[in-house]
Amino acid sequence: MKISLVGNCQTQCYSYFLKMLMPEEDIYWCAYRDPLPWNWMRDDYGVYHIGVDDGVKHIEESDVVIYQPIASDQTSEFYHMGLMENYISDSAKSITVPIVVFDVEKDYDSQIRRLRRKENFKSMEIKAVPYFQKYKDRTEDLMLNYNHPTTFLFLEILREVCLKMDFPFFEDERYNELILERNFMELPC
To answer: Could you tell me the CA-to-CA distances from 170 to 15, 17, 19, 86, 173 in Å, in that order?
Structure first.
């Protein structure tokens, strides 16, 4: 199976966790723009990093596409919402994941409203807002900084993706090992 993930560094993290779950599958990560300003992931994870030039071809040939809906062609000339549906083949499965930007230092309720507006505008299939509502008193469990989720939030969103896509997910023991490290993916904070 060929799986393509498209988006920012958050989808890069999902691609690595998926490779851990499905090491035999071909997993490609396409950054929403070139050059990659934050390609911190080491190559030994086994995820193929695809630039914009080759990304469209990989998306068209993929069996599964997981992507962050990017509204503006000014942010991403090739991967904005207006074009993504054209790239995904009719036989492929696709799902959208949120772009999680949440500043816990600012007014919590206004941040929830802002994130909900974005998720609703982009018809997001997987949403982050429920986690911020559920864990309002434990925001340190959700965000490392304003645009980098913790391992816990990454895995909870990925769990939803896996359920909807009928992918395997981590056994409880492995899941608990992973979330012990808040920043398993070593995102810059």
So the answer is: 14, 9, 12, 32, 8
State yes or no: cis peptide before 35, omega within 30 of 0: yes
Digit-coded pLDDT (tens) for 166-186: 999 999 999 999 999 999 988
- Element at 15 (helix H, strand E): helix 9-21
Q: In CATH, what number is assigned to the domain containing residue 75?
A: 3.40.50.720
What pTM, to 2 d.p., does this model score?
Answer: 0.91
The C-alpha atoms of residue 80 and residue 176 are separated, in whole angstroms, by 35
Q: Is the predicted pLDDT of residue 35 greater than 60, yes or no?
A: no
Query: What is the identity of the amino acid at 147?
Result: N
Domain limits for position 53: 2-99+149-179
